[in-house]
Amino acid sequence: MKQIIIIPILFLMCFGQDEPTAIKDYYHYSMEDIERLETEIEFGLGTLHLSANEKPYQLDGSIYYSIKRGEPIVTMEKSNGVGNFEIEFENNYEGIGLFFNKDELNIDGVKNEMDFQFPKDIPTELELEFGLGEADIDLTDISISNFELECGMSDVKVKISEPNKIRCEKVSVEIGLTDFSCVGLGNLNANTYEIELGLGDADIDITGEFKQNAELEISVGLGSLDLVLPKNVNITLSVDHSFLASVDINGLKKVSDKKYKSKNWNTDFLSLDIEISLGLGDVNVRVER
Predict the structure, then answer these.
(1) Which pLDDT tens digit goes with each residue over 80-106?
(2) Among 100, 191, 245, 266, which is disulfide-ready with 104 (CB 3.0 to 4.6 Å)?
(3) Which of 194, 181, 86 is nearest to 135 (CA)?
(4) Which residues, including other chains, have CB under 8 Å from residue 57's CB and lie 6 or more apart?
């Protein structure tokens, strides 16, 4: 059953006006009647928080938004045991420059903010498109079956502190002009990881508890990548780069001009095969201590 509580919070642009410039909506959905959750979120401007819900079969959240910049369109549909949850905005970003600062996230004194807590025990496909702003995404304790993230010009932090309860089919991350950091990506227990880095800076820690063999493909344009690899996994690394790129590999044994492998190969370990394609950027790779 869906329960939505809408609480209008009034912010007056100047004294004497009686029309609100901001509203905060609350959303509550019971997930006890579904077996799988498919989620698509498009959030163009503001601050985003995603985390696990303390209630294992409950999806809760809130959206605090400026009316002048557009209203959210939130839908939840259920069919044949599958929940389809979508969020998008009727956006109006007129006046927001290409090179924005954090103060521009406050629209007329109102900060656009989205905060949702996902059910722990429902397999969840999460597709997220994030534009300008700041995002704090904590996937710890969420049963992630597929994860896709596209971020534009933003500051994005992703964290997975504990092993995923289920197998994740694929992780796909596309990073634009973004300051991106991720800790514990290996805990998602994915078969395939794909990361595309454009002009941004990325600190990616793919350590964690691996439960299956995995492949990691990384493409770097003009950006900068710091990559931390797990120590208890057999790693093979191939780096294809131009002479203008900068590559620094630590903790692996060089077997040829552009190929590396784990120093202490163990037949009892799972494997992680990595391919990095590098344009004019720089890549620093090290194995966790």
Answers:
(1) 999 999 999 876 454 444 444 545 555
(2) 100
(3) 181
(4) 30, 31, 32, 119, 121, 122
Of the candidates 115, 142, 169, which is a domain's last residue?
142
**Torsion of Cα atoms, 133 then 113 then 88 then 163, to 10°:** 80
> What pLDDT digit, counting tens, does each position of 208-217 carry?
999 999 999 9
Residues 129 and 185 in one domain: no
Neighbouring C-alpha atoms within 13 Å toward the C-beta of 18: 0
Residue 199 tokens, joined: 């002009």
pLDDT digits (tens, 9 = 90+) for 116-166: 999 999 999 999 999 989 999 999 999 999 999 999 889 999 999 999 999
Indicate the Cα dihedral angle 186, 283, 221, 40, nearest 10°. 20
Same domain, 85 and 192: no
Q: Domain for residue 33, yes or no?
A: yes
Query: Up-side HSE of residue 178: CA atoms within 13 Å toward CB?
Result: 31
How many separate helices (H) and strands (E) can be counted in the chain? 0, 24
pLDDT at 68: 78
